[in-house]
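Let us practice reading a record.
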Amino acid sequence: MNQLGHPSDAPKDCTACERLTAFRRGNIEKYPDFFNAPVPSFGDASARLLIVGMAPGLKGANRTGRPFTGDYAGDTLFTCLEKAGLASGTYSKDPCDSLQLEDTMIVNAVRCVPPQNKPTAAEINQCRPFLIDLIERMQGVKVYLTLGRIAHDSLLRTLGLKLKDYPFGHAAHHPLPNGRHIVDSYHCSRYNTNTGRLTEAMFLDALTLCTALMKD
C-alpha cells in the first residue's frame, strides 16, 4: 500500500536534536507555509526496496513534507524510478501529485533539514532509532539502496555491520549475512549531476541491479 508516513516516523514536534530543532523553529518564522517538521517516509510499507537518503532539502522536502519532493535530486530520482518500473503516475514536485512508488519505500537517515545541508554525526546517531524501527517493521525488504556515503554508513550502523567490510562505491553490491543486499549510488544531488559524477545512465544501472536482486 502506497503511503506517506509510517508508524516509525519521527513525531512532528521532535526535539531530539537541539540544533535541528532551533533551525526548524527559525524556518517556521521565515517560511510559515513550509512543512517545517521531520519529513516522513514515503512509499509502499510492504516494499522489497528501501531507498535511504541523507536528509531533507530546505526548500525541497522540508517545504513539501515528502522525501525528495521539490528537491533538485528528486527530478533525477523519480524520473529514474519510473523508467525502472518502480514508480507510476506524474511527479510534479507536489505531495498531492499522482506519483506512486511501486514496491519501493524512501526514507532519509536524518528526518529534519540540517543547516547548510550538513547533519552532524551526533544528529545522524540521534535520528537512527527511527531508521532502526522502520527496518524492523519492513520485513519484506530484500534490497537497500543507499544514496551517498552518509546514508550508506548510517544504514550499516543501523544493521550492526562494520563499515570496513562494506566499502561505499557507486553501483557497489554488498550481499548481507541475512540474505538481503545493499546497493550503493552516488547521491543524485545537483552537484553530482551537474559535474557528471552521476549521470542518469549511471543511476539507472544501480536501479537495474536493485530490481534484479529484488526478484531473487
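A brief commentary: Strands lie at 2-4, 42-44, 49-53, 87-88, 100-101, 104-108, 143-147, 173-175, 181-185.
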